[in-house]
């Protein structure tokens, strides 16, 4: 478990390769494109758990949040509904400035990819889903996505990255 300031601890699986049944019900599952274009909206689906979590009055998921590169991009409050699957859809847009921010934050050689053909830039950023179960606390998961610069490039031409 990890502390969020003075807030509740974040639960993490003991062995991410071998989740327990309880972990399978709580660790968020993030579905998102592997690559997105800065400035263009894309959809991210967050499902609470790889197996259904109950959504009953005494035991349910209270909320789900989604972050892109540590910036909150959406939060959805949930109610006990009797449904077994808690899935939230977020519409996200990566700002072109994120590419510049990542370039400044990380090693200039490995932080940003620059295409040898067209000069476009891309960065790898984290999507982070966080959810709170009213009984079992806060759980999180990450997914890396590639964010391409939104500037026009030749369609259908695969980028060739220079390190």
TrEMBL record:
Compositionally biased spans, kind Basic and acidic residues: 1-12
Top EC class, one word: oxidoreductase
Superkingdom as given in the UniProt entry: Archaea
Entry EC no(s): 1.15.1.2
Molecular function in Gene Ontology: iron ion binding; superoxide reductase activity
Span of domain Desulfoferrodoxin ferrous iron-binding: 20-112
UniProt cross-references to Gene3D superfamilies, sorted A to Z: SOR catalytic domain
Membrane-traversing stretches: none
Span list, region Disordered: 1-23
UniProtKB keywords: Electron transport, Iron, Metal-binding, Oxidoreductase, Transport
Pfam families attached to this UniProt entry: Desulfoferrodox
Family: Belongs to the desulfoferrodoxin family.
Name the UniProt record assigns to this protein: Superoxide reductase
Organism: Methanosarcina mazei WWM610
């Amino acid at each position: 478990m990890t502390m969020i300031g003075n807030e509740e601890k974040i639960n993490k699986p003991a062995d991410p390769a071998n989740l327990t049944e309880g972990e399978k019900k709580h660790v968020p599952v993030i579905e998102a494109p592997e690559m997105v274009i800065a400035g263009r909206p894309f959809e991210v689906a967050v499902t609470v758990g790889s197996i259904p979590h109950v959504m009953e009055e005494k035991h349910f998921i209270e909320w789900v949040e989604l972050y892109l590169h540590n910036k909150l991009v959406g939060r959805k409050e949930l109610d006990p509904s009797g449904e077994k699957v808690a899935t939230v859809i977020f519409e996200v847009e990566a700002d072109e400035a994120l590419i510049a921010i990542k370039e400044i934050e990380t090693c200039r050689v490995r932080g940003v990819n620059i295409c040898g053909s067209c000069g476009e830039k891309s960065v790898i950023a984290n999507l982070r889903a966080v959810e709170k179960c009213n009984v079992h606390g806060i759980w999180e998961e990450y997914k890396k996505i590639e964010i391409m610069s939104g500037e026009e490039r030749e369609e259908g031409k695969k980028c060739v990255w220079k390190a």
